[in-house]
Amino acid sequence: MKAIVCSTFGSPAALSLQELPDPTPAPAEVVIRVDACGVNFPDLLIIQNKYQFKPQLPFSPGGEVCGIVEQVSQGVHHLQVGDRVVALCGWGGFAEKVTVKAQRVIKVPPAFDSIAGATTLYTYGTSYHALKDRAQLQPGETLLVLGAAGGVGLAAVELGKLMGAYVLAAASSADKLALCKNKGADRLIDYSKQDLRTQLREMLGDKGVDVIFDPVGGHLSEPAFRSIAWRGRYLIVGFTSGEIQQVPANLPLLKGASIMGVFWGSFAEREPAQNMLNIQQLMQWIKEGKIRQHIHQIYLLKDAPMALQDLMERKVMGKAVVQMPRAMEANR
Ligand SMILES: NC(=O)c1ccc[n+]([C@@H]2O[C@H](COP(=O)([O-])OP(=O)(O)OC[C@H]3O[C@@H](n4cnc5c(N)ncnc54)[C@H](OP(=O)(O)O)[C@@H]3O)[C@@H](O)[C@H]2O)c1
């Protein structure tokens, strides 16, 4: 099979397309023939050896796939060869085939679109868990989303609107903000042009923001937190700026506010039943057309390093996705 391989930790340019033997499943695993694989920020961190998960070299990146079950090992009961599935594999998805623990694989209807399948779980799963289970966002509350045109950010904008919030989308360019508006954002903030705190003050006066969704960190965190409302909730989602949020501890005290960690992967493992309810809800909303992933670009497998490079350079809006040539042909 063909696969994108990381043989040495570093930038996307160090990845190469290689021919590898087909994988075989260990007990409790399945082999999925990959149709498409979503591109997520953690893929970038994993190839640089900067993520929580540290696969041994050499490995293929790519953590979220949609495809067809091709082999099932003993001990797997909820899946059969030929099932259409989505799965969180952690890594290995930028390849024609991947082995995945069966418990991380979810069966979807045979006609489920492979691009939607490969781009839904990570972003919507994370953002829904953050807004619903952690912040307990209520209709009528104000939600500020930083990095709002990125993968989890745009999902938070869409879900925030669906949950009845007044959504402020903050991002670094007019194009990115136009996309957020298209997804329903009520107010737009370009933090590349003017100080975030000043813009929030102008928009909200002393009222403040009830919930802040922060996948960026760095220099945006403190001005955002200074704009939080009484009993506000600040969601720590990620650190794409490369800097972990530093918020002086007196700020939550003064606002009776909470800083809340969001770790969707751990939530999914520790609270699988709750997570499955969330996923069913998201699938239902997709079916009803209430949420729809914005696809920035579909890349061929050989171009997966370019997809990661684009993500690193902040060019991607919504989601990038890698599709296997065979699946691309089938869609024509
Ligand atoms: N906690 C969890 O359970 C969980 C789950 C999934 C993902 N995450 C984390 O969430 C974060 C976002 O992931 P994602 O897949 O949504 O990423 P993404 O699509 O690349 O979006 C991230 C956004 O961050 C902003 N950004 C600011 N500085 C950046 C920089 N130096 N490099 C790249 N982007 C920068 C960009 O928006 P602007 O250009 O508009 O500033 C970009 O759109 C990552 O840290 C990821 O690890 C966490």
Write the topology of this structure.
Elements: E1 2-5, E2 16-19, E3 29-39, H1 41-47, E4 64-72, E5 84-88, E6 97-101, E7 105-107, H2 114-117, H3 121-134, E8 142-145, H4 151-162, E9 166-171, H5 174-182, E10 187-190, H6 196-204, E11 209-214, H7 221-226, E12 228-236, H8 250-255, E13 258-261, H9 264-270, H10 272-287, E14 295-300, H11 304-312, E15 319-323, H12 325-331
The structure holds NADP nicotinamide-adenine-dinucleotide phosphate (NAP).
Key terms:
Rossmann fold, binds NADP nicotinamide-adenine-dinucleotide phosphate, six-stranded parallel sheet, 332 residues, Quinone Oxidoreductase, Chain A, domain 1, 2 domains, alpha/beta, seven-stranded mixed sheet
